[in-house]
Design brief:
The chain has 451 residues and is α/β, with parallel strands linked by helices. Helices cover 23% and strands 33% of the residues. The strands form four sheets. An eight-stranded mixed beta sheet has the order 7-22-23-21-20-17-18-19, sandwiched between helices. A seven-stranded mixed beta sheet has the order 10-9-8-11-12-13-14. α1 packs parallel to α9.
Length: 451
């Protein structure tokens, strides 16, 4: 039996979700952070709890046969990518095996697996990036992503392959400007400083761009010069707006104590499956626009041609609800974030959809207020899955069909066990790779209530 802090060598058997290598030492399973199947590694046990043993890599003694040269100099230190050094086909195979393995272990079998759909673009696919301000080894201001498994250190990303040239140009211009005017970044430990984040959104279908600078209120900023430089940058897309958000919160979550429009409009537009969606600085929207179109087309396919009354639970800004509206008699969307519901209502009005109703509230509470029995329920819950009490209420409604959209196969497997125990049969499963070069994967599941 391995003890905590024990050092050992092993060849990793396989990569399990999310991005952990699995080895067996004298019959004991050990999960290794950032381990890849086929690597020979020297590791140290970091945690033993509730019968689970975890370890970290001290040294890679031999690389995996899958590994190659990543097309980015920051790979390995930057936390943005995990599988950039693997052929894309190998990434898809890893994700498919992980999801099917989790469902098999949960006893979910016998369904029609319809494969894994690759992302339309495997590079430059992201429509949103949240850059963090920090300093480099020389204590010079930098702007980038958190280093892998580090809370405070920032990796610059001037060669990032997940975004297009407009993101990189804006990032480097903003960085150079604040290096020039010498505005300090916000230190999370001391809670002193000004610059916190730079959030860039670029609609993948229209090319519209929204730039949001997030700072504290500890210094008054004149952003006119930066505004003019942004307007003259010569972007391929169209700069629709430049925002300044003030956030004095202690946490690292991006939120707005106040927000000012420095230039233009506070929204951009995406066009998905014939519908238009206005997206604000804080709206949730899938980060891969072309991948989202494929994902939502699978949801619509699974929903069927005549869906009657549809409940869209955890509906966010109502994208799925509006995509299903043309094939439904009526759609009710429920979401706890009031801003998201306001956006859903606005988008439904813009799309001239009159059979969509959106409710701001907790799914657990609002389901009690709905009296009509739905023909179809669509759920797209947060990473943690469906709240157990909400899950019970969904089952009590006994919808003939359910479509489950999941970004976390672990939570999906646990929830499907509950549905299966309640008489639901998994009919179809399709995977959609929305996040190339990362461990993440989206799943779309169709269930029906058995006789």
């Amino acid at each position: 039996m391995l003890k905590r802090y024990a050092v050992f060598e092993a060849v990793i058997e396989e990569t399990v979700f999310p991005n952990k290598g699995l080895v067996r030492i004298d019959g004991e399973k050990v999960f290794i952070h950032d381990g890849l199947g086929g690597q020979k590694v020297k590791c140290q046990v970091t945690r033993k709890r509730r019968g689970r043993t975890e370890a970290k890599i001290l040294e890679i003694l031999e690389p995996s046969p899958l590994e190659g040269q990543a097309p980015c100099p920051q790979f390995g230190s930057c936390g943005g990518c995990t599988y950039l050094h693997l052929p894309y086909e190998a990434q898809l195979a890893i994700k498919e095996k992980q999801v099917l393995g989790l469902l098999r272990d949960a006893g979910i079998q016998g369904f029609d697996f319809q494969g894994i759909e690759p992302s339309p673009n495997i590079y430059e696919y992201r429509n949103k990036m949240e850059y963090t301000c920090g300093d480099d080894a020389d204590r010079k201001l930098t702007l980038g992503l958190h280093k892998r498994r580090m809370r405070y250190e920032i990796s610059p990303t001037p060669h990032c392959r997940l975004v297009d040239a407009d993101f990189l140009a804006i990032q480097q211009l903003v960085l150079a400007y604040f290096q020039e005017v010498k505005v300090p970044f916000y230190h999370k430990k001391s809670r002193q400083g000004v610059l916190r984040h730079l959030v860039i959104r670029k609609a993948g279908t229209t090319g519209e761009i929204l730039v949001n600078l997030v700072t504290t209120s500890q210094m008054a900023l004149d952003l006119d010069e930066l505004k003019e430089r942004l307007k003259q940058l010569g972007l391929k897309g169209k700069l629709m707006g430049f925002l300044h958000t003030v956030n004095d919160g202690k946490g690292d979550t991006i939120k707005a104590d106040s927000m000012q429009v420095i230039f233009g409009e506070p929204m951009i537009t995406e066009n998905i499956l014939g519908l238009s969606f206005k997206i604000s600085a804080f709206s949730f929207f899938q980060t891969n626009s072309l991948g989202a179109e494929k994902l939502f087309s699978f949801v619509r396919e699974y929903a069927g041609s005549q869906s009657g009354l549809v409940y869209d639970l955890y509906c966010g800004t109502g994208t799925i609800a509006q995509i299903l509206a043309p094939i439904a008699r009526h759609v009710v969307g429920i979401e706890i974030v009031e801003e998201a519901i306001a956006a859903a209502r606005m988008n439904a009005w813009l799309n001239k959809l009159t059979n969509c109703e959106f409710i701001a509230g907790d799914v657990l509470v609002e389901l009690d207020h709905l009296t009509d029995m739905p023909n179809l329920i669509v759920v797209d819950p947060p990473r943690s899955g469906i709240h157990p009490k909400a899950l019970d209420k969904i089952v009590e409604l006994e919808p003939p069909r359910l479509v489950y959209v999941s970004c976390n196969p672990v939570a999906l497997a646990e929830d499907l066990k509950v549905f299966a125990a309640s008489g639901y049969e998994v009919e179809r499963l399709r995977l959609m790779d929305m996040f190339p070069h990362t461990p993440h994967i989206e799943s779309v599941v169709l269930m029906s209530l058995g006789e």
